[in-house]
Amino acid sequence: MADPEPPVVAAHAQTETHRYTMHFPDHAPRANDPHYAAFEAFRRHHREGAVCFVGERAGAEHCAGNLELHHAVLEFATANAADPRALHKDFPEISENATADEIAAWLESSPGEFRWLCAFHHRGHGGAHTASHSDWTAQLYVPGLIS
Fold it and tell me: What are the backbone dihedrals phi and psi of residue 18, each rounded to the nearest 5 degrees, phi first?
């Protein structure tokens, strides 16, 4: 005799809380970053026609706020502590012996490092800086997952 099908879990809303401590390395203020001009140039030259990375997948009706340019891989404040050997595994254009300055230059000028996100999907409670990675990524394909 076959086992009975397990019951289906009904759709539900569930509050999630994530709390941990970040250990940021020393870093200069953003305004003093000599590579920031490259980031700003990318923003100016690619803003027209840009759409939210999440919204273009799950629907723009889930977006809110102006578009903002997001570092998709490594945030500016963490670049000084990035291990070049670890980066090289995923980004072979970065030397295994790259200096912090070379990593910062890549970070601010590599098109693959940037994503356009609406304010909600960038810094809001459904944002790349707020939601857990698994939840943020799931919302790319599950419209309205985070509210």
Answer: -125, 125
Q: What's the burial of 112, exposed, middle or buried (CB within 10 Å: 0-12/13-18/19+)?
A: exposed
Please give the model's pTM, rounded to 2 decimal places: 0.80
Q: Coil, strand, or helix at residue 68?
A: strand
pLDDT tens digits, residue range 2-37?
778 888 888 888 888 888 787 777 877 777 777 777
Strand partners, 118: 67
Distances (CA, A) of 37 to 29, 51, 61, 113, 144: 14, 22, 32, 15, 35
In which residue are the tokens 């291990």 written? 83
Q: Using CA atoms, how far apart are residues 69 and 32, in angstroms rounded to an integer?
A: 19
d(CA 91, CA 85): 10
56 within 8 A of 140, measured Cβ to Cβ: no
Q: How far apart are CA 69 and CA 63, in angstroms?
A: 14
- Is-contact 141 57, C-beta < 8 A? yes
Q: Where are the beta strands (DSSP E) in 7-138?
A: 67-71, 114-118
